[in-house]
């Protein structure tokens, strides 16, 4: 049986590895000692559509055990890299002993461009991008919950199409619907549009559902999205539909009065009321966020066309300020909806 390893198994990685375990694949999860301890006690997977699975016997590897002089370290047929963009550089060094000439590497990062680092480090390996559109929360230790819609999507390979079709068949599950695409770059831009709410959620310091119910927060997200759409137009990228509404319609819908928004966009609000974004978690834990790979990626692309993106620029400034404050003082401040709207003008 082909072997898989999920490297950097946090919430997304453990959910992915858990589904693969449910599907009886030969999969190991490389994670921090604290997470390994929880996995040793088993895992419960659920989603907002009431699918569930309980599993035991998960193969978990303590990341601290992967040292250059480690014994009995094997290489794997497939490596799923689920660290954040900010952790890719270090992860590249850490995974070298897990990768051989035939290992296929799947990059599951948010944002744009991190796969290029991996391709440069492993030029002879097949490196494919994976778009993970859903949120995963941990309501209690050992219980992972997919709290929002979305289909995990794997980049097709012209050189080895049989690999992607085989992987899709192996990982697809009701808990984690999966598909493939020939247009991954456009899809990642579409995902980036949805991820523009991440920074607003981190600044708001409230659950996503509650954030979306406040019009001023939605107006900020809509302004961020309009700037992104200006950039994708300049790049001649047609955004595929990755949510209930097409990307071009999202700024208009988000800008509606709240009572109309709730009527038109009920699927956007069909998320677990406890879900928060990964950027909120990073900021709350004093970690560096992925802001440079999300809103920052828009600024980088916009610069080539001299397209002004003042709202994305302001949000990057605010997140970096919060990062510094959190790292220096261990505390953070919430920005109200009305205050944030004023700050971007």
**Proportion of helical residues:** 40-55%
Q: Structural class, from secondary structure content? A: alpha/beta
What would you call the shape?
A: globular
Mean pLDDT across residues: 92
What is the first-to-last residue Cα distance? 57 Å
Q: What kind of oligomer do you see? A: single chain
Beta-strand segment tally: 12
The major beta sheet can be summarized as: 8 strands, mixed
SSE string, helix = H, strand = E?
EHEHEEEEHEHEEEEHEHHHHHHHHH
The strand order across the widest sheet is: 5-2-1-6-7-8-11-12
Radius of gyration: 20 Å
Catalogue the unreliable spans.
none
- Give the amount of beta strand, in percent: 15-25%
How many helices in DSSP terms?
Answer: 14
